[in-house]
Amino acid sequence: MQKIALLGRPNVGKSTLFNRLIRSNRAITHDRPGVTRDRMEGLVRPRAGRPFGLIDTGGITLDEHARPASGPAGLRGFEADILRQAEEAIRDAAALCLVVDGRDGLMPFDEHLAAFVRRQNKPVLLAVNKVDGLEQEDAMLAEFHALGFPMLAVSAEHGHNLRALEEELGDLLPPEEGEAEGGEDVLRLALLGRPNAGKSSLVNALVGESRMIVSDVAGTTRDSVDVPFTMDGQACVFVDTAGVRRRTKIDDVVERYAVNASLKSTTKTHVTLYVIDALEGVTAQDKRLVDLLDERKTPFMILVNKIDLVKRKERAELDKAFKEMLEFCPHVPVLQVSALTGAGLKGIVPLALRIREECAVRVPTGQLNRAMEEVLMRYQPPVVKRSRPKFFYLTQAETEPPTFVFFVSDADRVLDSYARYLEKGLRRLFGIEHAPMRVRFRSSHAKKSKE
Fold first, then answer.
1. Is residue 353 in some structural domain?
2. 155-198 pLDDT, tens digit each
3. Are 292 and 265 in contact (CB under 8 A)?
4. Contacts of 342-350 spanning 24+ positions with Cβ under 8 A
5. Are residue 408 and residue 271 in the same domain, yes or no?
6. Range of the domain at 336
7. Is residue 260 part of a domain?
8. What span, in angstroms and rounded, lies between the C-alpha atoms of 207 and 189?
9. What stretches of 102-150 adopt beta strand conformation (E)?
10. Do 31 and 93 share a structural domain?
11. How many domains does the chain have?
């Protein structure tokens, strides 16, 4: 699918415009300059015309020689990285949209960036943002004519001219060459973990290019950024998320938005990859987040990154720590990987595909009840309050995750330890090794169900 890149200096409203055009609050928006650093992709579906991809980029600050210049405080130190990301977006794009701020007027950074964009030899539309109505257009557009681009006044915040912008952007694209949208069998993967665990480095290593800015500064990644790639013929999309810290340590309002976006992204993907720094080991925050993922029945695996830096004699202690953390969700697989050396990376996609397949397992009724008989014969339910619960039959209520309901004489008499035994038995009989599973118990009379 053909793409258009949004370019502009910091705080001209590119991310707000991006969200409005793709009709989703994907990019974090804030009055503070420098919130967007990595590039992000979305899909625009115009009411008329064919869909096209849209790439949001960070605020670019260039001097008159097209070199990175010092930007606002939020960007300080990332200017060169942001320019490199923007250059990648330009290479991917068939056309460009240069965004400026109509309220601020024409600024030197706008002029320098316009000169840079002009040299790319691609169709360009100038979007003059923050123009809230027709009555303001003449006065606010006047000085931007000097840039020499076709332009349109818009307001991302108030929706002025957004449909016209969709049409103008679509008209910039060259004729379609029969590309199909595809994406039906795309494996969607979310990345989650504490700051500096190496999530962005893992994305870059798997995709084979520097798609994410990598820095020792915690909190570099703020947006959840979709990164499409293909591995061994399987189309995939990585959603790289901001690092998650304890809520008491999240005193930056932008980071608070990022953490919420990180947790939300796990609900929109097939499998979540929880990344842990092997050098730091398992922390209390890791345990809390793993418990949260297990409680939500999120399909996930754990990637122990930077394993190349751990001495072999220390790995046994690391394995023990993971076994303790996963005591109540032993189905979760653990892969030891290294973004630097590539160790273990080839196993991620096949394992994620397996988890996705297990989540979709549907067991026929006959097999369900044979399985129930087998697990009950191996180990009968314990007597509780002078009575042993009687099991009548088993059904599968849903998939994703597989959910099984036992109908029993009294759900309150089924002990948690016996529930874990039954889950283990069903996993073995149905071949569900790593996917999450729900096992519920419903009384045959008016008693409440138990999970």
1. yes
2. 998 889 998 899 889 888 887 543 434 445 889 898 888 777 78
3. no
4. 342/205, 343/307, 343/308, 344/303, 344/307, 345/202, 345/205, 345/206, 348/206, 348/273, 348/301, 348/303, 349/187, 349/231, 349/232, 349/234, 349/236, 350/232
5. no
6. 187-359
7. yes
8. 13
9. 124-129
10. yes
11. 3
